[in-house]
Amino acid sequence: MTLVSASELGALQVVAESGMTTPAIVQRRATVADADGQHSAWTTVGTILGWLFSEPSPVITLNAGEQVLVNTYRWFCPVGTDILSGDKLTIGGSEFTCSDTTAESTFLPLLRCSLRRIE
Once rounded to an integer, what is the mean pLDDT over residues 5-32? Predict the structure, then answer.
């Protein structure tokens, strides 16, 4: 006996995806060859719809001699989305770095990504 059947999980995914209306550009670092050899560059994977959730941090941190907030964000997107740790997301003109995803979880009504941004 399973807690949630495959059809119930599919219905949950449909409900979750109905709230995903914010576009994000996903970029991944790749090695690119050119006339001068090879260098690292950001290549666009695609644009996906999702939902951004912020968990504000009450702690100010020093970064390169400046006081900054390192907030934790969650990006919810459809199961099976091509997004990996280390990818860069541009959402509403702001850049975020994906630090982790729940892609390996067995119960996935949606894919949850942990994002970081230094403000």
Answer: 92
Helix H segments across the chain? 6-18
Structural domain range at position 74: 6-118
Q: With 80 as the cut, is the pLDDT of residue 49 above it? A: yes
In a domain, 107, yes or no: yes
113 in any annotated domain: yes
Does residue 1 register a pLDDT over 60? no
What is the pLDDT at residue 119?
A: 65
C-beta of residue 115 within 8 angstroms of C-beta of residue 92 = no
**Residue closest to 40 by CA, chosen among 78, 86, 93, 76:** 86
* Residue with tokens 């400046």, as numbered in its chain: 66
How big is the chain by its Cα radius of gyration, in Å? 17
Neighbours of 49 (CB within 10 A): 14
35 vs 41: CA distance, rounded Å: 15
Report if residue 57 sits inside a domain.
Answer: yes
Q: Is residue 1 part of a domain?
A: no
Q: How many domains does the chain have?
A: 1
Nearest to 21 by CA among 92, 82, 86: 92
